[in-house]
Design goal:
mainly alpha; four-stranded mixed beta sheet; 9 strands; flat
Length: about 700
């Protein structure tokens, strides 16, 4: 769309709102005429900056980056150059490219030292703040926000003040200043709408309405939040019709989904999140996409935990920063809803290690809640929830604080009436909010869980904790459980079990021994006998099999099948799915029992699937030009099969192409030695570019 068309669309939108507004202009820079860009040709930096600003305010970072690629930069520290680079830095963050965002932000900050123009200072520091916040550098982000506010106020441009305050609003809401955000946005909106230049852009006003909705949501004012998000969504729809683009408004839909989920209206929440996913994908905003996928995973978690887990994994792969942390937390809640406390605990550890996880009260409170529900120790759980409630209170989040207080009351049996009334006053049904979150776990009766690990060695986990060897009274009981796992949990005739455990002995004389071993296994899995006898291990007078027992190798094979199916369809998320599945492979099946013949079939199947994953990962890494990852996966393949000639030669070629010539020569010598060991003549040293993706 040309600049002239965009200006006309902005005027049409303003007329529909009963206002008069001039055409969009570069904030902080006097308006200037510009010719329409022709057919994807190059743009001068002033025109590129104006278009980039317009598309970024519309929530379309993919188009901003397209404009960025077409813009001719000179390297001069001019206001136009700084502003064009600033919008690109923000777009790279939204598009899930933090490394490139950092690179561009460094250029912006460097140029700001040579340009005193107030508009450029305001936009440049605002962009640097966004990038620093995305990286988890909270103090740096706050410093740039302060400088941006000072420059915007000094410029005398009310629209620029609104822009800067809108950029800082979400962070201030996270810090507990939602009421102040509402006041500052109101002041800026009024000034922009009534000032002598009337320079407010409709896109900027719509973004401000979304942020007002987020502030009301944080304050627990759900009706006001819904109204703001709804008003913003309607405005985006009208603007989209004027511009001929119907994918606007993903952020407003995300906010509506959050309001519905807080109220426990999961059907409308899912619908809003799903539409937000579609629009965010079309606009290339991976931050909003990840947040919408996270909300959708939570809204589906209790009823469809496996589907929700896939949504959460997809969200985690989209971006960095707090959005990624919250996606990891969502994955943890979904795992708990699926009775997988160990997986949930892993999500807590991973999220806590992300940059910025410790520096934000609201994020840290979410981590504390999930960690509390991952532990079975009542005192530890009570302490963690109390800390989370204190964090929510300090962050001025009344709904979250009330939710945590209600969960504590349910779990301790004290104060339930008061905390229930408090939730209801805020408009939250205590049994429905956060379908796969805190209230879900606090209001359901948690059943004992048990799992078996056989990848990398045998281990039984009960409620997420390893069972010590002292709890096993019989080696035959352990062997019985291993045998059932090796047979994929399928019902196994008692005669087959007896022959495997007591080879050569009379079956009738071993029937009692088998019954004793079976009783020991059941006692280890459920020592307090809280569940039905056949809950984990089902048996009758003919067969024995696994029932409600999780087995890591089966989880691995299921995840691998899903990942390989995604890779076959060449989906954009194949690498993440393949990597998630490969991480589940901790080692070969029952590698601590190498001589158990009945374990060989399952061991070889898992090995073959793991090899296929490594091959596909090497292929995907090559397609992504991620040479470090490709080297890693090729080395893993050679650990599996040191005589794999194609992988050897591909690795040598890859190292040579990367300029690691000494390592390439050493690897070639190792390859030649391996080939001679099996009486195969080594191939010649590969030529540049002569490498495949691994096995076929």
């Amino acid at each position: 769309m040309s600049t002239a068309q965009m200006e006309a669309a902005g005027q049409e939108f303003a007329a529909a709102e009963g206002e008069h507004a001039g055409p969009p202009r570069q904030l902080g820079v006097p308006p200037r005429p510009a010719a329409a860009p022709q057919g994807g040709g190059l743009l001068d930096v002033a025109e590129g900056g104006r278009l980039a600003m317009t598309y970024q305010l519309l929530g379309e970072p993919a188009r901003v980056l397209e404009i960025h690629r077409r813009t001719q930069f000179t390297g001069a520290a001019t206001p136009d150059e700084i502003m064009a680079l600033s919008w690109a830095a923000v777009a790279f963050c939204a598009h899930g490219e933090p490394g490139r965002a950092q690179t561009v932000a460094r250029l912006v900050v460097g140029a700001l030292g040579h340009c005193a123009e107030a508009g450029a200072q305001a936009v440049g520091h605002a962009a640097a703040a966004v990038v620093a916040a995305c990286d988890g550098r909270g103090a740096v982000a706050e410093h740039h926000r302060e400088l941006a506010e000072q420059a915007a106020c000094a410029s005398g441009d009310p629209a620029l003040v609104l822009l800067v305050r809108a950029g800082a609003a979400q962070e201030r809401i996270e810090q507990g200043a939602a009421r102040d955000v509402l006041a500052s946005l109101d002041t800026a909106l009024t000034a922009a709408a009534t000032g002598p230049d009337r320079t407010e852009l409709p896109q900027l006003r719509l973004a401000a309405e979304c942020l007002r909705g987020a502030a009301h949501l944080a304050l627990g004012e759900l009706d006001y939040a819904a109204a703001e998000f709804g008003r913003s969504l309607a405005g985006y729809q009208r603007l989209g019709e004027a511009l001929g683009h119907g994918a606007l408004g993903a952020q407003a839909l995300l906010g509506l989904g959050d309001v519905h989920r807080e109220r426990g209206a999961l059907g409308p929440a899912r619908a809003a999140y799903q539409e937000a996913v579609v629009r965010a994908e079309q606009c290339g905003d991976r931050q909003v996409l990840a947040a919408a996928l996270t909300g959708l995973a939570l809204a589906r978690g209790a009823e469809e935990p496996r589907a929700a887990a896939l949504l959460a994994r997809r969200a985690v792969a989209q971006c960095a920063g707090r959005t990624r942390i919250r996606a990891l937390v969502a994955a943890g809640w979904v795992a708990l809803a699926d009775e997988r406390p160990e997986t949930a605990a892993d999500a807590v550890r991973q999220a806590a290690g992300e940059p910025g996880a410790q520096g934000c009260r609201t994020v840290f409170a979410e981590l504390l809640e999930l960690e509390a529900m991952c532990t079975r120790e009542p005192c530890a759980r009570e302490r963690l929830l109390a800390d989370a409630e204190a964090m929510w209170t300090a962050a001025r989040r009344p709904v979250a604080a009330a939710r945590t207080a209600f969960a504590r009351a349910r779990l301790t049996g004290s104060g339930q009436r008061e905390t229930t009334a408090r939730l209801r006053q805020l408009g939250i049904p205590e049994a429905a909010a956060d379908a796969a979150g805190l209230l879900n776990r606090a209001t359901v009766t948690r059943r004992p869980s048990a799992a078996v690990r056989v990848l990398g060695g045998f281990q039984v986990l009960r409620d997420g904790s390893p069972v010590g060897p002292e709890e096993w009274q019989s080696k035959k009981a352990r062997d019985l459980l291993k045998l059932l796992v090796a047979r994929r949990g399928l019902p196994t005739p008692r005669e087959v079990v007896v022959e495997a455990l007591w080879p050569g002995e009379e079956p009738s004389r071993c029937a009692n021994r088998l019954s004793v071993a079976l009783s020991i296994v059941r006692l280890v899995l459920d020592p307090e006998r809280r569940l039905a006898q056949d809950h984990f291990i089902a048996a009758d007078k003919h067969v024995i099999g696994i029932a409600g027992l999780r087995v890591d190798v089966q989880d691995f094979l299921a995840a691998a099948r899903h990942a390989l199916a995604v890779a076959e369809r060449s989906g954009g998320h194949a690498f993440a799915a393949l990597a998630d599945a490969e991480r589940l492979y901790r080692g070969d099946v029952l590698e601590d029992e190498p001589y158990m013949e009945w374990a060989v079939a399952l061991r070889e199947e898992a090995q073959a699937v793991h090899t296929e994953l490594l091959v596909r990962l090497a292929t995907a890494a090559a397609e992504r030009e991620d040479h470090h990852a490709e080297v890693h996966f090729r080395l893993r393949l050679l650990e599996r099969d040191p005589y794999d000639e194609e992988t050897h030669l591909g690795l040598v070629a890859l190292l040579a192409e990367a300029g690691r010539h000494g390592e390439a020569r050493r690897r070639y010598a190792l390859y030649a030695d391996r080939m001679r060991e099996i009486d195969v003549a080594p191939a010649a040293f590969p030529r540049p570019g002569q490498r495949g993706a691994g096995r076929d």
